[in-house]
C-alpha cells in the first residue's frame, strides 16, 4: 500500500485540526511513532498506542463522530501502509519536516515519535538491548543520542552536533532497519536469511542532498526521497 501525497496531506490536515492545547502528534512524529510501535519486540495493540497520538491527555476531543471516524481511519491507513512497506523491505522512508527557509531536513520530530513509542514498553526494550548484538546495540544508542540532541541533553560539542545533524537523516533509515532485523525479523522474510552472526546492513540509498538516481537532476530529498 503506497502512501500517496494526497493521503499524507489529508492526514497532516486531520492531525493539525486536533486541539493544539493537547499537543497532538505531527505527521512526522506520527510516522516515527508508528515505526517505533512496529519495531517493538512485543506487539502493542492500537487501543494502547492510538490515544497517545491525540496528545498529552490521550483525549482527541473530536467535534463530531464523522471527524473521529475520518481521523482514526486515516491514522490506521498510514499504519497499515507502513506495515506493508516493512513486509516488502525492512527499509523505511521517514517522513521528515523540511525548514522552508533554510531548506534543512528536520529529523527531530521523527526521532521523538520513535522514542515515544519505545516508552510504551521500556522493560521490553531494555531486555532487547541486553541481548542485542553489538551493531544493534550501537544503533539503538545512536538513536538515543539523537533524542538527547533533540531535548538539549547531549554532551556532544556544538561541532559534533552539527555534523551529526547533517548526517542523521541518511543514517536513521539504516539504524531502523538494523533494529527491525533483530526485533521483528518476521516482518520481512528475505531479511531473516542473513546469517545471525552477520550484522544486518540495509542496502545503501542516495544521500538526501545527492542527485536523485531517477535522472531528474533534482536533489534526492526534493524528488523520490521527498518524505
Overview of the molecule:
- The structure is a single chain.
- This protein is mostly helical and 227 residues long.
- It has one domain: Four Helix Bundle (Hemerythrin (Met), subunit A) (Up-down Bundle).
- Helices cover 54% and strands 2% of the residues.
- It has eight helices and two strands.
- A two-stranded antiparallel sheet has the order 1-2.
- Strand 1 and strand 2 form a beta hairpin.
- The longest helix is centred in the C-terminal third of the chain and has 26 residues.
Distance between the termini: 16 Å
Helix content: 40-55%
Query: How many DSSP E strands?
Result: 2
Q: Kindly report the average pLDDT value.
A: 85
Proper CATH architecture: Up-down Bundle
Percent of residues in beta strands? under 5%
Total domain modules:
1
Q: Reading side by side through the largest sheet, how are the strands ordered? A: 1-2
The parts where pLDDT drops under 50 for at least 5 residues are 190-208, 220-227
Reading off the top of the CATH hierarchy, the class is best stated as Mainly Alpha
Computed CA radius of gyration, to the nearest angstrom: 18 Å
Which of globular, elongated, flat, extended, rod-shaped describes the shape?
Answer: globular
Question: What series of H and E elements makes up the topology?
Answer: HHHHEEHHHH
* Class derived from helix and strand content: mainly alpha
CATH superfamily: YgfB uncharacterised protein family PF03695
Largest sheet: 2 strands, antiparallel
And the CATH topology? Four Helix Bundle (Hemerythrin (Met), subunit A)
Number of helices: 8
